[in-house]
Specification:
The protein has 314 residues and is mainly alpha-helical. Helices cover 32% and strands 1% of the residues. It contains twelve helices and two strands. The protein has a two-stranded antiparallel ribbon. It is globular and about 60 Å long. The relative contact order is 0.15.
């Protein structure tokens, strides 16, 4: 049922430009205010980091390390995911603990591993700023509060949609994929590699939670979705990430254990070569995929074709 989406995408979405060091712009919309707040360090307890410190614009709004550095040098417990293409998602974070973009936007501010600042204190800081009081009055006709702070950040994140990749050119009949990319696409949607079973729809995610075998209750003990639902069947499950711009968001998985796409594909090809006692692993990964070296290379080539032109290094 989902197959036509990947073979004939027709949506063209413009990426919002983002530069922390850009000249001051006129701020007259929720999204513009959210963009400013995204880089605002006073929203962290020690005023050392902002949202953009971990969600780096140059790397598709992800980080470049397995675990990001929060306040006072603390490390996060999970890898920082990209915030691109979040506009239409029903869940946020690896465990899906937020169900709206507004909720998601506020949680890192309070998280003790990240920005570590109670929202009450964040609002006190914003309300001590004549600049922010003026901006919030101008846009919301109110002083800063929890609701309009979340709305501003969410409005900015909603502009971060990408669909200008080589794959999009192919799906819109603008230019073809290379032979290697096309072989990779066919593997991706086929029954051998099984990628499309989870990475479907226009953003290459089914918006579901899966246990891919990186949980054994011992050295791999992050219980993921179970911490939210308390359902035993959710132990070790994490949200299926979208694959747009995946080539520039390394490292991969919820714990950032894989540094390259080649390592990711090697894992999916034979999960039990990496973890010999996974608990609750998805049934689709119980049998090795049996991909050849060429097929692995073809899949990597296709995944790289999903990079928006904004993030292709010149």
């Amino acid at each position: 049922i989902m197959l036509p989406v990947i073979t004939s995408l027709a949506v063209i979405i413009t990426v919002t430009s983002f530069s922390i060091n850009a000249q001051e712009e006129i701020i007259s919309t929720k999204a513009a205010l959210g963009k400013k707040l995204f880089s605002e360090k006073i929203l962290s307890k020690d005023s050392s980091i902002s949202c953009a410190s971990c969600h780096k614009p140059a790397y598709a709004f992800a980080d470049t390390v397995a675990f990001s550095t929060g306040i006072y040098g603390k490390l996060t417990s999970r890898n920082t995911p990209s915030v691109l293409n979040m506009k239409n998602r029903p869940y946020y974070f690896w465990d899906g603990r937020a169900v709206t973009l507004e909720d998601q936007a506020l949680m890192p501010i309070e998280n003790p591993e990240e920005m570590g600042l109670p929202i009450k204190e964040a609002l006190e800081r914003l309300n001590r700023s004549e600049e922010y009081k003026k901006l919030f009055r101008k846009i919301f006709r109110q002083l800063p509060n929890a609701k309009n702070l979340g709305l501003s950040l969410a409005a900015f994140e909603q502009t971060l949609e990408t669909a200008d990749s080589r794959f999009d050119d192919w799906s819109n009949n603008i230019s073809p994929l290379t032979a290697e990319e096309e072989r990779g696409r066919e593997l991706f949607i086929g029954n051998k590699a099984k990628c499309f079973n989870c990475h479907s729809m226009e953003d290459f995610t089914d918006d579901d939670f899966k246990n891919i075998g990186l949980y054994n209750g011992k050295d791999l003990n992050d219980e993921g979705r179970f911490n939210i639902t308390n359902s035993p069947t959710d132990k070790g499950k994490f949200k299926t990430p979208g694959l747009r711009n995946i080539a520039v968001t390394a490292p991969y998985m919820h714990d950032g254990r894989f540094k390259t796409l080649e390592q990711v594909i090697a894992y999916y090809n034979t999960p039990f070569m990496f973890v010999d006692d996974p608990v609750n692993i998805d049934s689709s990964l119980m049998v090795p995929l049996g991909l050849s070296q060429q097929e692995k290379k073809d899949l990597v080539a296709f995944l790289k074709s999903l990079t928006d032109k904004t993030y292709i290094k010149r």
